[in-house]
Specification:
CATH topology of chain A: ABC transporter involved in vitamin B12 uptake, BtuC
Shape of chain B: globular
Number of helices of chain A: 15
InterPro entries (chain B): AAA+_ATPase, ABC_transporter-like_ATP-bd, ABC_transporter-like_CS, P-loop_NTPase
CATH class of chain B: Alpha Beta
CATH architecture of chain A: Orthogonal Bundle
CATH architecture of chain B: 3-Layer(aba) Sandwich
Keywords (chain B): ATP-binding, Nucleotide-binding, Translocase, Transport
Order of helices and strands of chain B: EEEHEEHEHHHEHEHEEHHEEH
Oligomer: heterodimer
CATH topology of chain B: Rossmann fold
Largest interface: A-B, 36 and 40 residues
Radius of gyration of chain A: 23 Å
Strand order of the largest sheet of chain B: 6-7-8-3-9-10
CATH class of chain A: Mainly Alpha
Domain ABC transporter (chain B): 4-231
Structural class of chain A: mainly alpha
Number of domains of chain A: 1
Protein name (chain B): Iron complex transport system ATP-binding protein
GO molecular function, one term (chain B): ATP hydrolysis activity
Distance between the termini of chain B: 58 Å
Chain lengths: 364, 268
Amino acid sequence: MTQQVRGARPDKTAARTDHRAAAGAAGVARSPAASRLLIPALAVLLATLCVVSAGIGAVQVPFDEVLGALTGTRTEHFEVLWAIRFPRVVLALMIGAALAVAGAGMQGVFGNPLAEPGVIGVSSGAAVGAVGAIVLGFSALGGWSITVAAFAGGFVATIAVYALARNGGRTEVVTLVLTGVAVNAVAGAVVGIFTFVADDEELRSITFWSLGSVGGASWAVVAAMAPFALLGLAAMPLFSKALDLLALGERSARHLGVDTERVRIVVIGLAALLTGAGVAAAGIIGFVGLVVPHLIRLVAGPSHRILIPASALAGAGVMLLADLAARMVVIPAELPIGVLTALLGGPFFLWLLRRTRREQGGWA
Amino acid sequence: MGMIDAAGITWRAGRATLLDDVCVEAGEGELVAIVGPNGAGKSSLLAVLAGDVRPDRGSVTIAGAALRGLRPAALARLRAVLPQKVTLAFPFTVAQVVEMGQYGRPYDERTQREVMDATEVAHLAHRAFPTLSGGEQARVSLARVLAQGAPVLLLDEPTAPLDLRHQEQVMGLVRQRARLGDTVVVVLHDLNLAAAYADRIVVMREGRVAADGAPGDVLDAGLLSEVYACPIEVRDNLVLPVRHCDFFPEVRLPLGGPSRTSSSAPAG
């Protein structure tokens, strides 16, 4: 008996030490050093990239001149910078951030790391909207007509995928990807029909939409996209906590007080808004929404409070790099940026698929 | 009227009747165990009590309010639910998972520490949840449920994946919450745990309540033997399946099964 008590005592002390260690560990888990440094680091990197990207191109502009132009110093390339380079940089930033945040939000709602606007057909749904607006001559909303049409197409596609791929509050990988295949096929067919009836000029913009490019950047395009992208980017972080809880599955999230119905419809709406804005401004640019949130999760963990802003910054950076590469690879021509992201993102997707399958022990 | 009160619950799924006119209630400070064989409707009943499903007939009130009219946030302040199986889509850490229990209110470090200590998961705080063993995951999930601080706890087999020490620890913890005034409804398979810790035991059979009362009254050898379709003895409030009889028909492995089994059988 005495021995038992004596035996129990060190156990208790051990438990107490554990508890102190855990208090520290819990603190660390709440804001790991990596994630605390991640956002400032990404911000600095992004600012540097902006200057580099604005300086490099058919006409080389020294970096100090780029910085000077930003503060209003009129130099030799002032006009080029403000008319061509800066809108292009801003557009790439917004599209990259929008696509990455849309990806992060969708992965959160679907509870699946493979949910991505391009893969599950939201991008092609948005493309149907955009192309349809062009061919059918929808212009009731002025400069925003195509963006709104793209958003509507993307929203319908997401709702379709959501309704078809969900089962018991969660999406299986296979169902999700196959649903994406089906939605992409239908969207591709509809774009095909529009291509068939389009005239030459419309054909050119349809090609542009399906390949993806920020080459047509202008302040007008930026202005048409900005309200939608900024609304989505500003609103998505409001759902970080709810998205965290959705990882437990819809039932448990609801038990904890999340209004799952409302959260999923709003987040899907925001993701469609962001994707629609991106597609309307630059066509289908795939895999940014898949790769970026995944890399951030590897570095900073899955907490959406960090994942969303970090994905926005990293997505913007990736887009700037991709645009830079698209301009540099085949000088003086330009590679469509969507082709480039797909070339790099496709293999990444395969790798992720393989990894997911290994973790799940295969799927039937 | 109890803290949580289900009256005349009938729930049909397709042609199957999962619950048939079930009435269950649990008062403040009461620990009610729900027991019964597989498929008796225990988890279905818990799902109805939790508000996950709307039954075809009957109603549930919680703290005097109709479950149906409560928003998820209001409901979460009243009841917490531990599901039988917990999955996590992304590799959150244990500390992050437990913190999810405090959704909808400012984070409180003390609550977090208390529930993690009580369930003995503090040393796992920085581990990724999916890398834990089944028993550890169950304790972390319980910590999350306790962190919610709701006065009604609905627990679906909280002890199933646990070792002996943690089974007793978890039931003791839940018992303590009841003593402090919480209402606990817990689905259990282990009748002896139910006998030792519950104020009241509800025995379910084929979607109906077969018995409802104090452990001493409900744990009757005749009743349990009939409900579980298996001979059961009860001695000093200890439930024992009768193991020495040839109650179950001999199971013959299909021919062509592993030859070792058949060759070693005569030797045994």
